[in-house]
Amino acid sequence: MDIFERLQNLDKRVFYLMMALAIAIPTIRPIGLPITVTTAVQKTYDFVKSLPDGSKVLIGFDYEPGDEIDLNPQAIALFHVFGPKKIKVVAISSFPAGPMFAEECMMVLAQYGYKYGVDYVNLGHYAGGESTLAAFATKPTSIFSKDWLKNDIASLPLMKEITSMKDFSMAMTLNDGPTGGTGTHEWVRQSVMAHGTPLIMGCTGVLAASNMTYVQSGQCKGILAGLAAAAEFEKLIGKKGTGTVGMDAQSMAHVLIVAFVLLGNVAMIVSRQRAKTAGGGASR
Amino acid sequence: MRISTDIGAWVGALSALAIYSVLYKENPVYRLVENIFVGASAGIAVVVGVQTFQSTAWVPMAKGNTWLVVPMVLGVLLYARYTPSVSYLNRIPLSFLLGTSAGVAMRGAIESQIVGQLSATMINLNSFDALVIFLGTVTSLAYFFLTYRFSGRAAVVSMWGRYFMMAAFGAAFGNTVMGRVSAAIGRFQFIFLKWLGM
Hints:
The complex is a heterodimer of chains A (284) and B (198). By secondary structure, chain A is α/β, with parallel strands linked by helices. Chain A has 11 helices and 6 strands.
């Protein structure tokens, strides 16, 4: 059996092992590969930077633990922009695990002297998907009577300033699609179309292609797609976080995948050529 | 290296390793953790459901919003499907749910997903990007023009539509791979950085 046949019959566990090494080594010992800021991330950063000081934003933490690595770094990087501008944050979630991520990410705001209830609020989980989001956008208190920490909404000074979606200078959804909650399409309909509130999207890499259309059409002000966008945003704000650390591993994993795809195809083409030649020889 | 003393980190890391062990071979540890995951997810869903019911229906009703009994009754009717003699009652809340969901979605769907997207393709063809968007839209739509079979030179249009779609599928697949690799990176960061403290 020559090298090409061996490649075609490679035990998939060899690939798994190589993939594990490609991710593990740069995670433990970061290489520091260069990160280039893309137009989409720059546009998002510029928009967020242009928000007036002290304005209010709504963020939907619409994801589950599997998407934490893509979306948590995006939220944290964004909060580092909000912090110096004292932009007030209201967090909601259409997934049960979302409020935990909101709490984890909003801990960053404490660095900037934020006070809970005055400068930021975590309202918690809501059921019912788009219908509930629509109701929240019209009258937030119709959906939430207590926040994630079981405080009465009426007792929170920040919530007294908010009567509808129109009170927010910007909305953002961090999501991996609408299954089980609300995704980008639902947020575009209920935020941008129904109330005219500018929207930026934070999504996993899987959704990048389908969500990008909203930015190209001008319906959304920006998009952060996947861990790569988080790393680019971290570069723009000058703070290295888990996004930057993860990019070395991501690049190495991609190099490995591309190498295997190329090798596999070369092996297949060579094997086919040989079979054709052998077949042709036999017929003669 | 400072290994975490947090019990949650240990449970999370060992569970992740148990799940990854299936990549080598199916084994009882993997099955145990998988079953725990399914059971825990179901348990969390029940708790969240009960909490949602309490906070959005039961407590407000007890405080005087008596009209909330209507959606509560509709909710109970959803379970009528499990009793054959009254299963038809299940259609009432289902119809209501479908009607309201469609109505809420329609409010912005036409503008955001049809008009907005269409107008985004009606642009000045003064850049390469704009040309690609225009040609990609027109040729892809031509590919799905199924009532007329393109032949001869006209077939080139639908052929290019197919190429544009292949490129889009490739981009989508590449992003999907990136997303899956990210998920693995997240677990590796958790294991090496949070659990093992490397």
